[in-house]
Amino acid sequence: IPAPAGVYPYMPGPPPVRRATFGSIMSATFDVWMKNFVNFFVVFLALAVANALIAGLFALAFFGVFGIGSGFVPGSPPENVTVGNFATLILFAIAVVLASAIISSIVNGGMTEYSVRRYRGESMTLEQALRRGFERFLSILGANVLLTILVFGLVLLPLLAIFPFALSIGTGDLGFAFALLCVGFLAFVIGGIVALYMYIGMSLYAPAIMVENQKAIEGLMRSWRITKGYRWSIFGAILVIALIQALIGGAILVPTFFVSNPILDILATALVSGLVGSWLVIMAAVAYD
User: Fold this and answer.
1) Which has fewest Cβ within 10 Å: 21, 40, 162, 281?
2) Could you state, in chain order, the average pLDDT of each consecutive group of 10 residues for the chain (289 residues)?
3) Which pTM was predicted?
């Protein structure tokens, strides 16, 4: 039917495209979390408990005491650790960190794919998600290690350069040492900014690895490509989520510091993990999609 004079015919346009803005990322993150709250809570609470128990077992193996010591962090060495067995303490720390990294990679990888599927409205059971996490945990772990080395390298190398100059301030040419110290501090600031930029750009490696079956380096590079033009939005979402996590974690964990009860420490840490431990995982998943 011809359109009346002066009226343009209406043609339906394409469906709206979901944009990765700060607001859309945040709203989608909490939407996925609330709709699947029980599953996320149980998995991440169990992850925290498992890490604490693993640390306790390693403490038993290395020090003969099943304990976690007092303080905020489950897995801190028992109180009978002294300078004399410092080498054993280092081995204990390496074993705990490695075991925790493996189990966390399985859970984070599986729950990343679970978050993507649930965001898309697709069905996926926790068993399927964790099985997928186990299949891909080496790539998740490898990407995490590479990104950690890159970020901390950019921050720590300037600090290592500053340290000897700081020691020489009182023994040599004060002006020259102070100038070198300023240069080192400037390098530290620049390195920190670059490290943050690199981290934001590669922060979506987990969904790239899980959904696209990428390897570790491929997942990091894929994240670097797809985050172009969206890094301010992702940075804002990570910053706000981290601040809220810190507030909730502090409100739950600080009171346990004054009680000094290891079991209470584990329960409080597990509760925090169950409540907020999944947020950055979900955030990466919805931002990727």
Assistant:
1) 21
2) 50 56 95 97 96 87 66 45 68 89 96 96 95 96 94 81 60 65 79 93 97 95 96 96 96 85 86 96 96
3) 0.81
